Q: What sequence folds into this?
DNA sequence: AGATGTACCTGGTGGC
DNA sequence: TGCCACCA
DNA sequence: GTACATC
């Protein structure tokens, strides 16, 4: 399941191969995977354009394309969310078709960007720069990205406010802070020594600082390890290679094993229909 | 506002 | 081997 | 991973 570190890893690799690349077309195999607009209009908006840069906010990838032929303004944005099982592959466009390759974006170098997504929860959207906010309101509602400049303990404290909900729900709420999912919220909470079911507003200033610091530290470490690839899992980078951060997980998928910090047995509980891992002793 | 359940999908795993 | 419940 | 309905 791609979260911020996995998306950031793909962004870095994508930036290397895509910036300066001229795009020659786009093909949509599964309409459901294209959020906006229709396939032929989407193709028209990127055809002949050159990639200026690849950005990211939270779990969203933003590919910036200039439009030399542009009808209104000069730029388009290709926005991609990988959902639970989405992958992006950069390969020769002659490579054999794949059952779950739902969107293909062709580069001039005879390579293509393939959006592969078995579970189909991910999506691709194309928007003209001026209409992004209108067409994808979800982007406007995102909370600060932890690896950007606008996230500090004060911001986090203000965003926690008087929220009574559980800490893990807060971390996974993309409108509070963007990029954390099931794996990294568990890892961050363990690193900060906080229980997942603490009411968010029960944190004292010292704990808020610890939480902020560990959000930044855990995500940064995970990026430098190129993300997490679970045993049965879905995440692979642009070239099909797994990340290494799963080797550093301290709680996620480690139920029954000893806590690396205190030796107590890691527990697994159910929260919001998904697994939550924590140390019952050193997370308070 | 918060908690809970359901829906959207496919594929791999482990049990019997 | 097939079917199925369970998980991501 | 997310959106939405319901208590």
A:
């Amino acid at each position: 399941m791609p979260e911020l570190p996995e998306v950031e890893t793909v962004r870095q690799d994508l930036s290397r191969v895509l910036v300066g690349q001229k795009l020659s077309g786009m093909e949509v195999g599964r309409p459901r995977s294209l959020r906006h607009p229709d396939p032929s209009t989407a193709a028209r908006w990127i055809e002949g354009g050159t990639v200026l840069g690849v950005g990211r906010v939270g779990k969203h990838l933003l590919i910036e394309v200039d439009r030399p032929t542009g009808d209104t303004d000069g730029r388009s944005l290709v926005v991609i969310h990988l959902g639970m099982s989405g992958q992006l592959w950069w390969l020769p466009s002659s490579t054999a078709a794949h059952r779950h390759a739902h969107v293909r974006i062709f580069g001039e170098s005879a390579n293509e960007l393939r959006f592969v997504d078995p579970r189909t929860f991910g999506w691709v959207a194309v928007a003209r720069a001026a209409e992004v906010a209108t067409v994808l309101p979800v982007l406007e509602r995102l909370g600060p990205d932890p690896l950007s400049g606008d996230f500090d303990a004060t911001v986090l404290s203000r965003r926690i406010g008087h929220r009574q909900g559980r800490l893990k729900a807060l971390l996974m709420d993309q409108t509070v802070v963007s990029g954390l999912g099931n794996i990294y919220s568990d890892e961050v909470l363990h690193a900060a020594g906080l229980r997942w079911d603490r009411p968010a507003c029960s944190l004292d200033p010292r704990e808020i600082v610890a939480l902020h610091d560990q959000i930044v530290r855990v995500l940064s470490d995970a990026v430098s390890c190129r993300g997490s690839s679970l045993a049965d899992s879905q995440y692979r980078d642009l070239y099909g290679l797994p990340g290494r951060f799963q080797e550093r997980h301290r709680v996620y998928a480690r139920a029954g094993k000893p806590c690396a910090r205190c030796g107590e047995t890691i527990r697994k509980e159910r929260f919001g229909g998904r697994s939550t891992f924590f140390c019952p002793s050193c997370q308070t």
